[in-house]
Design brief:
With 319 residues, this protein is an alpha/beta fold. It is built from 10 helices and 15 strands. The chain folds into 2 domains: 172 residues, Rossmann fold (3-Layer(aba) Sandwich), CATH 3.40.50.2000; 132 residues, Glycogen Phosphorylase B (Rossmann fold, 3-Layer(aba) Sandwich), CATH 3.40.50.2000. It holds the Pfam family Glycos_transf_1.
Length: 319
């Protein structure tokens, strides 16, 4: 007789979760749903988003603790080290957690939850979703924190081989403890629809957080140049962030209101409806561990054009 599979009670912890928009948020949500389908119990802990505070329930009974901490910088919590211990301990004991899974190196809540879980004797897993440097002050500080946090985690997961090498060098975690699990896409949610595309013009779609790391400043320079060279090209930009103002200023400066459509933040459920309107998907990231948006665009039948950085070549080869 086969031994029955052990059911885990997993606590997913990150500063980045719904209603915030991004790849980390989607990854945590869909991973939680898949684990629940396999019979495991999953609970998510993140900080409060505006009036969304306390306990909420999502699809299939996914329980989310919106801890009443306000974002400090770029949606991350203020680092307190021991300030989060009482509530993390309460969640772990109340939900009878057996495994704590932290996501994203830039998440303060992730680091503190892993630290407290290790102190209490629980098993911990860490997933890194981004690439970081080694030379600037911010990266040096973050790498030291990561090295301390991952000192005795059971396993670490990266979304690409490039990300694995980056995490190994930054955290000094033994390579045999780091596993590569590429991001996946539910292709049933991203089906092509040729009837939605314009036949008279070429539409380039950009869906991304409008921040420096995602190459928003490159778009400010590239879009006017492309529009001047190719009158039949139009852009659709979905996403929000601090660089949105620069893109709107560019659109006003070059009088491109009828050729550059700014959608603002796009809910993940509506991403397909935007992608199927385009012919080309453009990714301008300056650093990228994987870029799941490329896979989603390819599933919708778009040609993809991207900067050759990080794990993007791995994502493109998988399409």
């Amino acid at each position: 007789m086969t031994e029955p599979r052990r059911r885990h009670r997993v606590l997913m912890v990150s500063d980045f979760f719904y209603p915030n928009f991004g790849g980390v948020e989607n990854h945590i949500y869909y991973l939680s749903q898949c684990l629940m389908q396999r019979g495991h119990k999953v609970v998510v802990a993140t900080h409060a988003y505006g009036r969304r505070s306390g306990v909420r329930y999502m699809t299939n009974g996914l329980k989310v603790y919106y801890i009443p901490w306000l974002p400090f910088y770029l949606q991350t919590s203020f680092p307190t080290l021991f300030g989060t211990f009482p509530i993390i301990r309460t969640i772990i004991l109340r939900e009878r957690i057996t495994l704590v899974h932290g996501h994203q190196a830039f998440s303060t809540l992730c680091h503190e939850a892993i630290l407290h879980a290790r102190t209490m004797g629980y098993k911990t897993v860490f997933t890194d979703h981004s690439l970081y440097g080694f030379a600037d002050i911010g990266s040096i500080h973050m790498n030291k924190v990561l090295e301390f946090t991952l000192a005795d985690v059971q396993q670490a997961i990266c979304v690409s081989h490039t990300s694995k090498e980056n995490t190994h060098l930054r955290s000094r975690l033994p390579p045999e403890k780091i596993f590569v699990i590429p991001n996946a896409v539910d292709t049933a949610m991203f089906q092509p629809d040729p009837s939605s595309r314009s036949q008279d013009e070429i539409v380039i779609v950009i869906i991304s957080r409008l921040v420096y790391r995602k190459g928003a400043d490159l778009l400010v320079e590239v879009i006017p140049e492309v529009c001047s060279l190719f009158p039949q090209v139009r852009f659709i930009i979905g996403g929000d962030g601090p660089k949105r103002v620069r893109l709107e200023e560019m659109r006003e400066k070059y009088h491109l209101q009828d050729r550059v459509e700014m959608l603002g933040a796009v809910a993940h459920a509506n991403v397909r409806s935007v992608l199927v309107r385009g012919h080309i998907f453009l990714n301008s990231s300056l650093t990228e561990a994987f870029c799941i948006a490329i896979l989603e665009a390819a599933c919708c039948g778009l040609l993809t054009v991207s900067t050759r950085v990080g794990g993007v070549p791995e994502a493109c080869s998988s399409t």
